[in-house]
Amino acid sequence: MSPVLGIDDAQENMMYTEFQDRLAVITGASSGIGLALCAALLPRGVKVLAMSRTVGELPTLQQIYGDRLQWCAGDVTCQDDLRSLAERASALGPVDYLVPNAGIAEMANSLDMPAFQRQWAVNGAGALNTLAALRGTLASPASVVFIGSFLTGSSFPGLAACIASKAALTAQARTLAVEFARFDVRINLVSPGPTATSMWNHLGLNEEELGDVANTLGKRLLPGHFLDASAVANVIVFQLSQGARGVYGQDWKVDNGYTLG
């Protein structure tokens, strides 16, 4: 084994060790990036409290990991559900890792304020209220990773409301990172690019329109294809880890090179 490979192996083993028996709370965990994050953390020994409106594909992981994965039914737009989540977390805690991952996207006219309110309620207020509800359960140190969007510095007709909700969350997260640092809590963001998840099926587009959107996005992706959810989850895992212990208030874009175009 080469010395370089030996160092890499040691670093990987250290990462797995540091996650052992830690507690992570993940919202929007039943599919897509949230589910992939659960699947990435559980083998590392993390206990996961997963929240989502439906159980989705979580039972498959529960069959493997048993009680180390617990599910809490809930909606991040409902304060009672967030209080219930906090109570569950407090009983299991303290919370070492928090990822308010729940999010939605909806194609709409850029001046459709009801569409903005719906998306802000989940993507922005929902994420911030999740942190507010869980802040009393956070460990010291702890790490929080919000989910942004690769489009916050771009424009995309029909997605203005979604982009705006994520942009506002990104701006708020930067100041929160400063405010929470004194509690030994790191706050950052990971902003996924076009990712192959079920979210695309909920945009309100027919098959032809969805194909057009996919083609438009795909032309700017350097590998020529959408990300898989695990690629984003792996970056979130690193953000949560002590390997990123010097990172505060940063927005890491995982976008297959989209924003280079």
Give the secondary structure arrangement, pairings included.
Layout: H1 3-19, E1 23-27, H2 32-41, E2 47-52, H3 58-65, E3 69-73, H4 79-92, E4 95-99, H5 113-134, E5 138-147, H6 160-181, E6 185-192, H7 207-218, H8 229-240, E7 251-254
Parallel strand pairs: 1-2, 1-4, 2-3, 4-5, 5-6, 6-7
3D structure, described in words:
The protein is of the alpha/beta class and 261 residues long. It has a single domain (21-255), classed as Rossmann fold, CATH 3.40.50.720. Helices cover 45% and strands 16% of the residues. The protein has 8 helices and 7 strands. The chain has a 7-stranded parallel β-sheet, sandwiched between helices. Helix 6 links the parallel strand 5 and strand 6 (185-192). It starts with a helix and ends in a 7-residue tail after the last strand. The model is unreliable at 1-7 (pLDDT under 50).
